[in-house]
Design a protein that fits this description.
Layout lengths: L5 E7 L6 H9 L6 E7 L6 H11 L3 E5 L6 H10 L5 E4 L5 E2 L3 H12 L3 E10 L2 E5 L23 E4 H5 L10 H12 L3 E12 L11 H22 L7 H15 L8 H5 L7 H33 L1
Parallel strand pairs: 1-2, 1-4, 2-3, 6-9
Antiparallel strand pairs: 4-8, 5-9, 6-7, 6-8
Helix pairs in contact: 6-7, 7-8
Length: about 300
């Protein structure tokens, strides 16, 4: 096969139940000038054998078996380092894609000269699904930096040169935003297709759903990477993002501290002191009290007025 125009990168780990669905959706693409790189991250199930079987069926599929498990973001990195396409598309191995996804994204990227093209997606959970819009500012990319939108890597196509500039994280939980924030910063032009082309599967066995102390610390490590990156790159303009950063960090501390051991809770809450967590928490509770008291006060007032009229 000649040099592919697009590379579809799929990290594989313990997804035997879903892998065939994912690969079949890739092989069913209307756009055929692609390569698909499957990276087996030392998966303990039958996924490696499935990868090899598909590679025997279709020459566009390349399989890499890692010698040791290094986690999702490093599997993505390995896939990229072994790819050759001008455009890069990430697909998670428990998800699947519409038959024209690669064609639509590639065509939009080439015609518009965009460095990143994103699309809407379906969130699938069992027999139910919802339609999710990819919301971001295509006119002013600065508005996409920070903890706002554009977290996922899997509903986007990237120009190769953009991914080449990225430093992939080590921690797996929340690794998407570390990658996309770098990509968005380096991109000169981004575009969007207002149609759902990706199927995100709410896998209850994934690290996103199974929260442990370890995954929470991984989450925190990647939050810090994002903060450090945008602080360094934005310089004085970082001040324009501080409210957004502080709100996100404080919400993370508030809702995830319960997964941390008791003796480590204060240390966990203490990271990124710039967010002023305790002041934020007090205000949060005061707002909640006021919100509860106001309707009650109005009810009492209404009853009093009713009695006076009688």
């Amino acid at each position: 096969m000649e040099k592919p125009k697009a590379s579809i990168l799929v990290p594989v780990y313990n997804v035997e139940k879903y892998l065939e669905r994912c690969i079949e959706s890739i092989l069913s693409q209307t756009f055929i000038e692609f390569e698909c790189i499957l990276v087996d991250d030392c998966s303990p199930d039958n996924s490696p054998a499935l990868c090899d079987a598909y590679a025997q069926k279709d020459m566009r599929i390349k399989v890499i078996h890692k010698k040791q498990n290094e986690g999702l973001p490093q599997a993505r990195k390995t896939a990229f380092e072994n790819s050759t396409g001008d455009y890069i598309q990430f697909v998670d191995s428990d998800d699947w894609i519409e038959s024209d996804m690669t064609e639509k994204l590639y065509k939009k990227a080439v015609e518009s000269g965009a460095d990143i093209v994103a699309c809407d997606f379906y969130r699938n959970s069992g027999r139910s699904y919802s339609y999710e819009q990819q919301t971001f500012d295509v006119e002013d990319n600065f508005n996409n930096l920070g903890f706002v939108h554009c977290c996922a890597v899997w509903n986007k196509m990237f120009r190769r040169e953009i991914i080449a500039k990225i430093e992939f994280p080590v921690a797996g939980c929340y690794e998407d935003r570390v990658i996309t924030q770098q990509a968005l910063f380096y991109a000169n032009r981004i575009q969007k297709i207002g149609r759902p082309l990706y199927h995100y599967f709410d896998n209850t066995e994934s690290m996103t759903h199974i929260k442990t102390e370890n995954t929470v610390y991984e989450f925190r490590a990647n939050i810090i990477l994002v903060i450090n990156f945008i602080r360094e790159k934005l310089g004085n303009k970082f001040a324009l993002k501080e409210d957004n950063v502080n709100e996100y960090v404080n919400n993370f501390k508030f809702y995830y501290v319960k997964y941390i051991k008791f003796k480590e809770k204060l240390r966990f809450i203490g990271f990124y002191p710039e967010s002023k967590f305790w002041r934020w928490t007090i205000r949060k509770f005061l707002k909640k009290i006021v919100k509860c008291m106001v309707p009650h006060g109005l009810l009492v007032l209404r009853r009093r007025l009713t009695k006076e009229k009688m």
